[in-house]
Specification:
445 residues, 16-stranded antiparallel barrel, two-stranded antiparallel ribbon, 10% helix
């Protein structure tokens, strides 16, 4: 009897494991929640085991690629800088696995979502997402998210790398929103019932540490307030339109009494002027972003034609040599660096066109990032101006082609033509040779 009992238990467990993977396949097909109870067709003997897994979803993607740079040691925002003696490389750009567990309410709307995602490449393993999202279940209008998750700012920042058409986000996204994620808490208004009057409107507002994944802990008490309002896609006469506006108000603590801002010298030269008041020490350096975006899609017999536009502007604190958001109070050679405040702006423009059918897609992307709109190229490098490479404007023209082998697999050929301003600064008198060709294979499940 004991042998027969053990054999029965083993058989049930084996059946449960098989059905677990089958259930996950069904959940993937629905992208989020099942349309029906996936344990409906399971025998009563294994139902208690399967019900623990019916709302668990495992997804992921991998992006191996080969790149060729215009010169050895090219600085790049297309997967990171090249090593000093190399202009070609194979790399695993991203390899991610994500686990989502959804707890449904009686009406089959989500009641809670736990999400965990890791990225494992030759550069190491890092956690990309780890958050809990709780849904209000009375009216199904609101939710709260807490943990490590994407900042609710901009369209490009929030478009997943698994679905984004271009290999990388733009230079401005990577500098101002490194890693796209941050630790914080967010409240959202997003009706779950699509028949509601305002179901096409979504609003997020949250507070975040500010340094994202650049640091292991928050290095000051200042927090970033980030908000985004979205008009979800609406289709009429084969035309689909969506848009959004974004706001970020935050900053970080000034570790010195010095604050440099753009000004003018007596001879009219654009320079950085310094404020050295004692009250500047420990004061909050303002970080202020404003953004607007719009997407227009035309559906036709070949597939789709799409235009996207997104514009950011605002104020960014940094140092004399960088405008990136830091993980710790900025230092130079172990000494806390004076603060530099710059006015910036930038844009992302994208054109997508299916040709022949939906398997073939052409893309053209143009973006710029001007970290200091108060100066021009001819000002940078002048003696006494204190302007550095951190003040140089960059623009990038990207040309690409995608072939979809199947809904899960695609090949991307993409060429970035990068232009920097020609200045009087040594090393930037002419355009640097930093164009990049990317050949990528992507699979997602």
């Amino acid at each position: 009897m004991h042998y027969k009992y053990m054999k029965m238990i083993i058989r049930k467990c084996f059946t449960a494991i098989i059905l677990f993977f089958l259930c996950n396949t069904g959940i993937n097909a629905q992208r989020y929640l099942s349309d029906m109870d996936s344990s409906f067709f399971i025998k009563d003997t294994v139902r208690p085991v399967i019900k623990r897994f019916e709302n668990l979803r495992i997804t992921g993607y991998i992006q191996p690629q080969y790149q060729v740079a215009q010169s050895e040691g090219a600085a790049s925002y297309s997967g990171g800088n090249f090593s000093a003696f190399s202009k070609s490389r194979f790399m695993l750009r991203r390899a991610r696995v994500k686990i989502d567990y959804v707890m449904p309410s009686k009406l089959r709307y989500p009641k809670a979502l736990f999400s965990f995602q890791i990225d494992a490449t030759e550069r190491g393993v890092i956690v990309r997402d780890m958050f809990l999202k709780l849904f209000e279940t009375k009216s199904n209008l609101f939710s709260m998210t807490a943990g490590l998750f994407a900042r609710p700012f901009g369209y490009e920042v929030n478009l997943s790398s698994a679905f984004r058409e271009t290999p990388e986000r733009g230079r401005m996204s990577q500098i101002l929103m490194p890693s796209e994620r941050d630790l914080g808490v967010m409240l959202s208004h997003e009706p779950q019932d699509q028949k509601r009057k305002y179901s096409r409107f979504k609003f997020d507002i949250g507070f975040f540490n500010g340094q994202g994944l650049a640091g292991t802990t928050d290095f000051d008490s200042n927090k970033d307030l980030i908000a985004r309002a979205v008009l979800k896609p609406n289709t009429k006469n084969r035309i689909e339109f969506s848009s959004g506006i974004s706001l970020l108000r935050g900053g970080w603590e000034n570790g010195t009494k010095y604050v440099f801002e753009s000004g003018a010298a007596a001879n009219g030269d654009k320079i950085f002027t310094v404020d050295s008041a004692e009250s500047n020490l420990g004061d909050a350096l303002p970080r202020q972003y404003y953004g607007a975006d719009a997407q227009l899609k035309l559906k036709h017999k070949w597939g789709e034609t799409e235009w996207r536009a997104e514009y950011w502007f605002g104020k960014q604190p940094g140092t004399s040599v960088s405008t990136s958001n830091p993980g710790t109070i900025p230092q130079v050679n172990g000494v806390i660096a004076p603060a530099y405040l710059r006015q910036f702006d930038g844009i992302f423009l994208l054109f997508l066109q299916n040709i022949i059918n939906t398997r073939h897609q052409l893309m053209i992307k143009y973006d710029w990032y001007d970290p200091n709109t108060k100066v021009t190229a001819k000002d940078i490098g002048k003696p006494g101006t204190n302007l550095t490479a951190a003040d140089i404007k960059y623009s990038t023209l990207g040309l690409g082609y995608t072939y979809h082998i199947n809904p899960q697999t695609k090949i991307i050929l993409y060429y970035d033509i990068v232009k920097n301003e020609k200045t009087q600064l040594s090393g930037y008198i002419a355009d640097k040779k930093d164009n990049i060709l990317t050949c990528r294979l992507q699979f997602r499940f």
